[in-house]
Write a structure and sequence with these properties.
Low-confidence stretches: 154-169
Number of strands: 25
Number of helices: 10
Strand content: 25-35%
Mean pLDDT: 90
Shape: globular
Structural class: alpha+beta
Distance between the termini: 6 Å
Protein backbone atom coordinates (compact mmCIF):
# COMPACT_ATOMS: atom_id res chain seq x y z
CA UNK A 1 0.00 0.00 0.00
CA UNK A 2 1.76 3.15 -1.23
CA UNK A 3 -0.68 5.75 0.01
CA UNK A 4 -3.42 6.06 2.55
CA UNK A 5 -6.91 4.92 1.52
CA UNK A 6 -10.20 6.61 2.24
CA UNK A 7 -12.76 5.25 4.66
CA UNK A 8 -16.55 5.32 4.37
CA UNK A 9 -18.09 6.19 7.75
CA UNK A 10 -21.81 5.84 8.45
CA UNK A 11 -22.78 8.91 10.48
CA UNK A 12 -26.56 9.20 10.67
CA UNK A 13 -29.68 7.23 9.75
CA UNK A 14 -33.10 8.93 9.78
CA UNK A 15 -36.23 9.57 7.66
CA UNK A 16 -34.88 13.06 6.91
CA UNK A 17 -31.41 14.59 7.03
CA UNK A 18 -30.63 18.29 7.28
CA UNK A 19 -27.15 19.32 6.17
CA UNK A 20 -25.16 22.43 5.30
CA UNK A 21 -22.39 22.57 2.70
CA UNK A 22 -19.78 25.16 3.69
CA UNK A 23 -17.75 26.00 0.62
CA UNK A 24 -18.33 24.72 -2.91
CA UNK A 25 -19.31 21.10 -3.39
CA UNK A 26 -19.81 19.23 -6.62
CA UNK A 27 -23.21 17.59 -6.46
CA UNK A 28 -25.35 15.56 -8.88
CA UNK A 29 -24.58 16.11 -12.55
CA UNK A 30 -21.42 18.01 -11.45
CA UNK A 31 -23.51 20.95 -10.29
CA UNK A 32 -21.68 23.26 -7.87
CA UNK A 33 -23.66 23.61 -4.64
CA UNK A 34 -23.40 25.41 -1.30
CA UNK A 35 -25.75 26.23 1.58
CA UNK A 36 -28.38 24.37 3.60
CA UNK A 37 -30.49 21.46 2.35
CA UNK A 38 -32.86 18.77 3.57
CA UNK A 39 -33.17 15.26 2.20
CA UNK A 40 -36.51 13.53 2.86
CA UNK A 41 -37.46 9.92 2.29
CA UNK A 42 -40.33 9.43 -0.17
CA UNK A 43 -43.52 7.63 0.82
CA UNK A 44 -42.34 4.51 -0.97
CA UNK A 45 -39.20 4.35 1.16
CA UNK A 46 -37.21 3.57 -1.99
CA UNK A 47 -36.00 7.07 -2.85
CA UNK A 48 -35.64 10.56 -1.39
CA UNK A 49 -35.98 14.16 -2.44
CA UNK A 50 -33.73 17.19 -2.12
CA UNK A 51 -35.73 20.19 -3.25
CA UNK A 52 -37.62 19.20 -6.37
CA UNK A 53 -35.32 16.35 -7.40
CA UNK A 54 -35.61 12.68 -6.53
CA UNK A 55 -32.67 10.34 -5.86
CA UNK A 56 -31.80 6.84 -4.70
CA UNK A 57 -28.30 8.00 -3.80
CA UNK A 58 -26.36 11.23 -4.14
CA UNK A 59 -22.81 12.35 -3.40
CA UNK A 60 -21.40 15.80 -2.65
CA UNK A 61 -17.65 16.17 -3.19
CA UNK A 62 -15.68 19.18 -1.92
CA UNK A 63 -13.88 21.27 -4.51
CA UNK A 64 -11.25 22.01 -1.82
CA UNK A 65 -10.68 19.00 0.44
CA UNK A 66 -8.83 20.97 3.14
CA UNK A 67 -11.05 24.06 3.27
CA UNK A 68 -14.57 22.77 2.64
CA UNK A 69 -16.69 21.11 5.33
CA UNK A 70 -20.29 20.01 5.72
CA UNK A 71 -22.47 19.92 8.83
CA UNK A 72 -25.07 17.31 9.76
CA UNK A 73 -27.83 18.21 12.20
CA UNK A 74 -29.02 15.96 15.01
CA UNK A 75 -26.34 13.27 14.96
CA UNK A 76 -26.96 10.73 17.74
CA UNK A 77 -23.93 9.82 19.86
CA UNK A 78 -23.77 7.05 22.45
CA UNK A 79 -26.38 4.99 20.58
CA UNK A 80 -28.20 2.69 23.05
CA UNK A 81 -25.86 3.69 25.87
CA UNK A 82 -26.81 5.63 29.00
CA UNK A 83 -25.30 8.91 27.70
CA UNK A 84 -27.18 8.89 24.35
CA UNK A 85 -27.84 12.39 22.98
CA UNK A 86 -27.91 14.42 19.77
CA UNK A 87 -25.53 17.10 18.48
CA UNK A 88 -24.61 18.86 15.24
CA UNK A 89 -21.29 17.77 13.74
CA UNK A 90 -19.00 19.07 10.97
CA UNK A 91 -16.97 16.86 8.65
CA UNK A 92 -14.20 17.09 6.08
CA UNK A 93 -14.41 15.09 2.85
CA UNK A 94 -17.39 13.95 0.79
CA UNK A 95 -21.01 13.42 1.86
CA UNK A 96 -22.96 10.51 0.40
CA UNK A 97 -26.66 9.96 1.13
CA UNK A 98 -28.27 6.61 0.32
CA UNK A 99 -31.55 4.82 0.99
CA UNK A 100 -31.24 1.88 3.36
CA UNK A 101 -34.05 -0.04 5.06
CA UNK A 102 -36.61 2.67 4.43
CA UNK A 103 -34.43 5.43 5.91
CA UNK A 104 -31.68 7.73 4.73
CA UNK A 105 -28.08 7.11 5.71
CA UNK A 106 -25.47 9.88 5.64
CA UNK A 107 -21.96 8.62 4.90
CA UNK A 108 -18.72 10.59 5.17
CA UNK A 109 -15.91 9.60 2.78
CA UNK A 110 -12.64 10.87 4.22
CA UNK A 111 -8.90 10.19 4.19
CA UNK A 112 -7.94 7.63 6.84
CA UNK A 113 -5.40 9.89 8.54
CA UNK A 114 -7.97 12.73 8.86
CA UNK A 115 -10.48 10.21 10.18
CA UNK A 116 -7.94 9.16 12.81
CA UNK A 117 -7.34 12.72 14.02
CA UNK A 118 -11.04 12.97 14.82
CA UNK A 119 -11.15 9.49 16.39
CA UNK A 120 -8.23 10.26 18.68
CA UNK A 121 -9.79 13.62 19.58
CA UNK A 122 -13.14 11.94 20.26
CA UNK A 123 -11.74 9.02 22.27
CA UNK A 124 -8.96 10.91 24.06
CA UNK A 125 -8.29 14.33 25.60
CA UNK A 126 -5.59 16.78 24.54
CA UNK A 127 -4.24 16.47 28.09
CA UNK A 128 -3.34 12.82 27.46
CA UNK A 129 0.29 11.77 27.36
CA UNK A 130 1.82 11.66 23.90
CA UNK A 131 2.56 7.96 24.42
CA UNK A 132 -1.14 7.21 24.95
CA UNK A 133 -2.20 9.28 21.93
CA UNK A 134 0.38 7.60 19.70
CA UNK A 135 -0.62 4.13 20.91
CA UNK A 136 -4.27 4.87 20.26
CA UNK A 137 -3.49 6.26 16.81
CA UNK A 138 -1.79 2.97 15.90
CA UNK A 139 -4.62 0.73 17.11
CA UNK A 140 -7.34 2.93 15.63
CA UNK A 141 -5.52 2.89 12.29
CA UNK A 142 -4.99 -0.87 12.46
CA UNK A 143 -8.62 -1.53 13.21
CA UNK A 144 -10.12 0.73 10.56
CA UNK A 145 -7.77 -0.60 7.87
CA UNK A 146 -8.74 -4.15 8.82
CA UNK A 147 -12.41 -3.16 8.40
CA UNK A 148 -11.71 -1.59 5.00
CA UNK A 149 -9.75 -4.65 3.86
CA UNK A 150 -12.70 -6.97 4.42
CA UNK A 151 -15.51 -4.62 3.41
CA UNK A 152 -15.77 -6.37 0.04
CA UNK A 153 -16.08 -9.81 1.59
CA UNK A 154 -19.36 -11.60 2.46
CA UNK A 155 -20.76 -10.24 5.70
CA UNK A 156 -22.05 -12.15 8.72
CA UNK A 157 -23.21 -9.37 10.99
CA UNK A 158 -24.99 -11.37 13.66
CA UNK A 159 -24.86 -14.99 14.68
CA UNK A 160 -27.55 -16.58 16.80
CA UNK A 161 -27.68 -20.27 17.49
CA UNK A 162 -30.57 -21.51 19.64
CA UNK A 163 -29.82 -24.99 20.87
CA UNK A 164 -30.39 -27.49 23.67
CA UNK A 165 -27.39 -28.28 25.84
CA UNK A 166 -26.99 -31.71 27.32
CA UNK A 167 -25.66 -30.36 30.60
CA UNK A 168 -28.23 -27.57 30.78
CA UNK A 169 -31.55 -28.73 29.35
CA UNK A 170 -33.69 -25.90 28.01
CA UNK A 171 -33.42 -23.29 25.27
CA UNK A 172 -30.30 -21.18 24.78
CA UNK A 173 -29.74 -17.89 23.03
CA UNK A 174 -26.01 -17.60 22.38
CA UNK A 175 -25.43 -14.68 20.05
CA UNK A 176 -22.93 -12.00 19.25
CA UNK A 177 -23.05 -8.89 17.14
CA UNK A 178 -19.87 -7.76 15.50
CA UNK A 179 -19.10 -4.64 13.49
CA UNK A 180 -19.46 -6.30 10.09
CA UNK A 181 -23.13 -5.44 9.62
CA UNK A 182 -22.55 -2.30 7.57
CA UNK A 183 -23.52 -2.84 3.95
CA UNK A 184 -23.10 0.71 2.63
CA UNK A 185 -20.03 1.83 4.57
CA UNK A 186 -16.92 0.47 6.25
CA UNK A 187 -17.48 1.56 9.85
CA UNK A 188 -20.02 3.47 11.91
CA UNK A 189 -19.21 6.64 13.86
CA UNK A 190 -20.24 5.56 17.34
CA UNK A 191 -18.93 3.45 20.22
CA UNK A 192 -20.01 0.23 18.48
CA UNK A 193 -17.06 0.91 16.13
CA UNK A 194 -14.84 3.87 17.05
CA UNK A 195 -16.04 7.31 18.12
CA UNK A 196 -15.74 9.63 15.13
CA UNK A 197 -17.31 13.03 15.60
CA UNK A 198 -15.84 15.04 12.74
CA UNK A 199 -13.67 18.15 12.75
CA UNK A 200 -15.83 19.80 15.42
CA UNK A 201 -14.18 17.49 18.00
CA UNK A 202 -10.64 18.49 16.97
CA UNK A 203 -9.71 21.40 19.24
CA UNK A 204 -5.91 21.21 19.52
CA UNK A 205 -3.00 20.06 17.32
CA UNK A 206 -1.98 17.41 19.86
CA UNK A 207 -4.08 14.61 18.36
CA UNK A 208 -3.01 15.55 14.84
CA UNK A 209 0.60 15.42 16.00
CA UNK A 210 0.19 11.91 17.44
CA UNK A 211 -1.38 10.71 14.19
CA UNK A 212 1.39 12.35 12.13
CA UNK A 213 4.10 10.86 14.37
CA UNK A 214 2.78 7.36 13.66
CA UNK A 215 1.76 7.96 10.03
CA UNK A 216 0.97 4.62 8.39
CA UNK A 217 1.97 2.55 11.44
CA UNK A 218 -0.17 -0.49 12.28
CA UNK A 219 -0.02 -3.63 14.39
CA UNK A 220 0.40 -6.90 12.53
CA UNK A 221 0.65 -10.54 13.55
CA UNK A 222 2.45 -12.88 11.15
CA UNK A 223 2.01 -10.35 8.38
CA UNK A 224 -1.73 -9.81 8.89
CA UNK A 225 -3.40 -6.69 10.27
CA UNK A 226 -4.41 -7.11 13.89
CA UNK A 227 -8.02 -6.74 14.98
CA UNK A 228 -7.13 -4.14 17.60
CA UNK A 229 -10.16 -3.98 19.88
CA UNK A 230 -10.16 -1.69 22.91
CA UNK A 231 -12.43 -0.80 25.81
CA UNK A 232 -12.65 1.78 28.59
CA UNK A 233 -11.68 -0.43 31.53
CA UNK A 234 -10.76 -4.12 31.53
CA UNK A 235 -11.33 -4.45 35.28
CA UNK A 236 -7.83 -5.78 35.99
CA UNK A 237 -7.37 -8.68 33.53
CA UNK A 238 -7.72 -8.69 29.74
CA UNK A 239 -10.47 -10.69 28.05
CA UNK A 240 -9.92 -12.98 25.08
CA UNK A 241 -11.56 -12.24 21.74
CA UNK A 242 -13.60 -15.46 21.58
CA UNK A 243 -15.45 -14.69 24.81
CA UNK A 244 -17.16 -11.78 23.09
CA UNK A 245 -17.29 -12.56 19.37
CA UNK A 246 -16.66 -15.54 17.09
CA UNK A 247 -14.89 -18.61 18.43
CA UNK A 248 -11.70 -18.17 16.37
CA UNK A 249 -8.97 -16.99 18.79
CA UNK A 250 -6.79 -13.98 17.95
CA UNK A 251 -3.38 -15.05 19.30
CA UNK A 252 -2.40 -11.47 20.17
CA UNK A 253 -5.55 -10.93 22.29
CA UNK A 254 -4.73 -13.00 25.34
CA UNK A 255 -5.29 -12.93 29.08
CA UNK A 256 -2.87 -10.76 31.03
CA UNK A 257 -3.04 -8.73 34.20
CA UNK A 258 -3.25 -5.01 33.56
CA UNK A 259 -0.26 -4.27 35.76
CA UNK A 260 3.50 -4.36 36.17
CA UNK A 261 3.40 -8.16 36.56
CA UNK A 262 1.18 -9.17 33.63
CA UNK A 263 1.43 -12.92 34.26
CA UNK A 264 0.29 -12.60 37.88
CA UNK A 265 -3.46 -13.16 37.77
CA UNK A 266 -5.93 -15.77 39.03
CA UNK A 267 -7.96 -18.14 36.87
CA UNK A 268 -11.09 -16.00 36.52
CA UNK A 269 -12.85 -18.69 34.49
CA UNK A 270 -13.32 -20.41 37.87
CA UNK A 271 -16.41 -19.11 39.66
CA UNK A 272 -14.84 -18.93 43.12
CA UNK A 273 -11.77 -17.05 41.82
CA UNK A 274 -13.92 -14.68 39.77
CA UNK A 275 -16.09 -13.90 42.79
CA UNK A 276 -13.11 -13.13 45.01
CA UNK A 277 -11.49 -10.96 42.29
CA UNK A 278 -14.62 -8.97 41.43
CA UNK A 279 -15.63 -8.40 45.03
CA UNK A 280 -12.07 -7.32 45.86
CA UNK A 281 -10.02 -4.29 44.92
CA UNK A 282 -6.91 -5.78 43.29
CA UNK A 283 -4.07 -3.59 42.06
CA UNK A 284 -4.04 -2.83 38.35
CA UNK A 285 -3.14 0.03 36.03
CA UNK A 286 -6.84 0.73 35.45
CA UNK A 287 -7.61 0.79 39.18
CA UNK A 288 -7.48 4.56 39.63
CA UNK A 289 -9.69 7.36 40.90
CA UNK A 290 -7.35 10.11 39.67
CA UNK A 291 -9.76 12.54 38.02
CA UNK A 292 -7.00 14.25 36.07
CA UNK A 293 -5.96 10.98 34.44
CA UNK A 294 -9.54 9.77 33.96
CA UNK A 295 -10.33 13.00 32.12
CA UNK A 296 -7.77 11.99 29.48
CA UNK A 297 -9.92 9.12 28.23
CA UNK A 298 -13.39 10.09 29.47
CA UNK A 299 -15.35 12.88 27.86
CA UNK A 300 -17.84 14.87 29.90
CA UNK A 301 -20.71 12.47 29.24
CA UNK A 302 -18.47 9.49 30.07
CA UNK A 303 -17.77 10.97 33.49
CA UNK A 304 -21.50 10.93 34.23
CA UNK A 305 -20.72 7.31 35.14
CA UNK A 306 -19.03 7.54 38.57
CA UNK A 307 -17.59 4.01 38.77
CA UNK A 308 -15.34 2.27 36.28
CA UNK A 309 -13.16 -0.32 37.96
CA UNK A 310 -15.88 -1.71 40.27
CA UNK A 311 -19.63 -1.01 40.18
CA UNK A 312 -22.94 -2.18 41.66
CA UNK A 313 -26.38 -2.54 40.07
CA UNK A 314 -29.56 -3.58 41.89
CA UNK A 315 -32.44 -4.98 39.83
CA UNK A 316 -35.84 -6.00 41.19
CA UNK A 317 -37.25 -9.30 39.99
CA UNK A 318 -40.03 -7.38 38.24
CA UNK A 319 -37.43 -5.24 36.47
CA UNK A 320 -35.52 -8.25 35.18
CA UNK A 321 -38.71 -9.99 34.02
CA UNK A 322 -39.75 -6.83 32.17
CA UNK A 323 -36.33 -6.43 30.55
CA UNK A 324 -36.38 -10.02 29.29
CA UNK A 325 -39.79 -9.47 27.74
CA UNK A 326 -38.75 -6.18 26.14
CA UNK A 327 -35.20 -7.07 25.10
CA UNK A 328 -35.43 -10.78 24.27
CA UNK A 329 -39.18 -11.33 23.84
CA UNK A 330 -39.10 -14.05 26.51
CA UNK A 331 -41.53 -14.41 29.42
CA UNK A 332 -39.87 -16.45 32.14
CA UNK A 333 -42.34 -15.40 34.83
CA UNK A 334 -40.88 -14.48 38.22
CA UNK A 335 -37.08 -14.67 38.21
CA UNK A 336 -35.73 -17.21 40.68
CA UNK A 337 -32.01 -17.12 39.95
CA UNK A 338 -29.22 -15.84 37.68
CA UNK A 339 -26.48 -18.45 37.35
CA UNK A 340 -23.15 -17.83 35.56
CA UNK A 341 -22.28 -20.98 33.57
CA UNK A 342 -19.03 -20.01 31.85
CA UNK A 343 -16.68 -17.07 32.22
CA UNK A 344 -13.84 -15.64 30.18
CA UNK A 345 -10.32 -14.79 31.30
CA UNK A 346 -11.33 -11.40 32.76
CA UNK A 347 -14.25 -12.88 34.71
CA UNK A 348 -16.75 -11.70 32.12
CA UNK A 349 -19.70 -14.06 31.88
CA UNK A 350 -19.93 -15.80 28.52
CA UNK A 351 -23.07 -17.80 29.31
CA UNK A 352 -25.68 -16.91 31.93
CA UNK A 353 -28.60 -19.16 32.88
CA UNK A 354 -31.76 -17.32 33.91
CA UNK A 355 -34.21 -19.43 35.92
CA UNK A 356 -37.83 -18.34 36.15
CA UNK A 357 -41.15 -19.78 37.24
CA UNK A 358 -42.06 -20.23 33.56
CA UNK A 359 -38.82 -21.91 32.48
CA UNK A 360 -35.12 -21.37 31.92
CA UNK A 361 -33.04 -19.55 29.33
CA UNK A 362 -29.28 -19.53 28.80
CA UNK A 363 -28.00 -16.35 27.15
CA UNK A 364 -24.63 -15.17 25.83
CA UNK A 365 -22.23 -13.84 24.67
CA UNK A 366 -21.18 -10.86 26.75
CA UNK A 367 -23.01 -8.09 24.87
CA UNK A 368 -26.27 -10.08 24.80
CA UNK A 369 -26.01 -10.44 28.58
CA UNK A 370 -25.30 -6.72 29.06
CA UNK A 371 -28.25 -5.73 26.90
CA UNK A 372 -30.67 -8.25 28.40
CA UNK A 373 -30.23 -6.95 31.94
CA UNK A 374 -30.31 -3.21 31.27
CA UNK A 375 -32.37 -0.61 29.42
CA UNK A 376 -29.11 0.44 27.75
CA UNK A 377 -26.08 -1.75 28.60
CA UNK A 378 -24.59 -3.03 31.81
CA UNK A 379 -21.08 -1.67 32.16
CA UNK A 380 -19.73 -5.18 31.56
CA UNK A 381 -20.65 -8.84 31.95
CA UNK A 382 -17.97 -9.31 34.62
CA UNK A 383 -20.26 -9.52 37.62
CA UNK A 384 -21.27 -11.77 40.49
CA UNK A 385 -24.87 -12.12 41.60
CA UNK A 386 -26.38 -11.94 45.05
CA UNK A 387 -30.08 -12.66 45.45
CA UNK A 388 -32.17 -10.58 47.83
CA UNK A 389 -34.70 -11.71 50.39
CA UNK A 390 -36.70 -14.70 49.21
CA UNK A 391 -40.43 -15.07 49.80
CA UNK A 392 -42.20 -18.26 50.90
CA UNK A 393 -41.99 -19.58 47.33
CA UNK A 394 -38.23 -19.04 47.23
CA UNK A 395 -38.43 -16.09 44.84
CA UNK A 396 -36.04 -13.18 45.62
CA UNK A 397 -37.34 -9.63 45.69
CA UNK A 398 -34.25 -8.39 43.83
CA UNK A 399 -30.77 -9.24 42.58
CA UNK A 400 -27.63 -7.21 43.18
CA UNK A 401 -24.90 -7.36 40.55
CA UNK A 402 -21.37 -6.58 41.72
CA UNK A 403 -19.35 -5.83 38.62
CA UNK A 404 -15.89 -5.06 37.27
CA UNK A 405 -14.78 -2.96 34.31
CA UNK A 406 -16.49 -1.03 31.56
CA UNK A 407 -16.85 -2.59 28.13
CA UNK A 408 -15.78 -5.94 26.71
CA UNK A 409 -12.25 -5.83 28.16
CA UNK A 410 -10.54 -7.08 24.98
CA UNK A 411 -7.33 -5.41 23.80
CA UNK A 412 -6.16 -2.01 25.00
CA UNK A 413 -7.69 -0.79 28.25
CA UNK A 414 -7.95 2.97 27.81
CA UNK A 415 -7.76 3.85 31.50
CA UNK A 416 -4.90 1.41 32.05
CA UNK A 417 -3.03 2.77 29.03
CA UNK A 418 -3.51 6.32 30.35
CA UNK A 419 -1.82 5.31 33.60
CA UNK A 420 1.02 3.66 31.67
CA UNK A 421 1.56 6.84 29.67
CA UNK A 422 1.69 8.89 32.85
CA UNK A 423 4.28 6.50 34.31
CA UNK A 424 6.64 6.96 31.39
CA UNK A 425 5.94 3.91 29.25
CA UNK A 426 6.53 4.53 25.54
CA UNK A 427 3.76 3.97 23.02
CA UNK A 428 5.34 0.79 21.67
CA UNK A 429 5.63 -0.55 25.24
CA UNK A 430 1.94 0.17 25.78
CA UNK A 431 1.09 -1.66 22.56
CA UNK A 432 3.19 -4.71 23.47
CA UNK A 433 1.48 -4.84 26.87
CA UNK A 434 -2.02 -5.16 25.40
CA UNK A 435 -1.37 -6.94 22.07
CA UNK A 436 0.81 -9.94 22.81
CA UNK A 437 3.61 -10.63 20.27
CA UNK A 438 2.19 -8.17 17.73
CA UNK A 439 4.61 -6.29 15.45
CA UNK A 440 4.65 -2.53 14.86
CA UNK A 441 4.70 -2.17 11.07
CA UNK A 442 4.68 0.86 8.74
CA UNK A 443 2.10 0.11 6.05
CA UNK A 444 2.42 3.33 4.00
Amino acid sequence: MNQQPQVKVGILSAPSIRFTLTGLYEGPERELMSGSFEARICDSGLSFTIGEKKYTSVEFNPTAYIGDTFELEGVTIGVDFHWQRKENQRFRGALRIVVADGKLTAINIVDVEDYLVSVISSEMSSTSSLALLRAHAVISRSWVLSMISRSDKPLASATSRPDVRALNPGPSLISYRDREDHLNFDVCADDHCQRYQGVSRVSTPVAAGAVADTHGEVLTYRGELCDTRFSKCCGGVFERFETCWDDKPRPYLQARRDGVNPLDYPDLTREEDARQWILGNPEAFCNTADKRILSQVLNGYDRETPDFYRWTERLSREKIAGLLRDRLDRDLGDIIDLVPLTRGTSGRIRELKIIGTNGELTIGKELTIRRALSESHLYSSAFVVEAGKRDSDGIPDAFTLYGAGWGHGVGLCQIGAAIMGERGYTYDEILRHYYIDADLTRLY
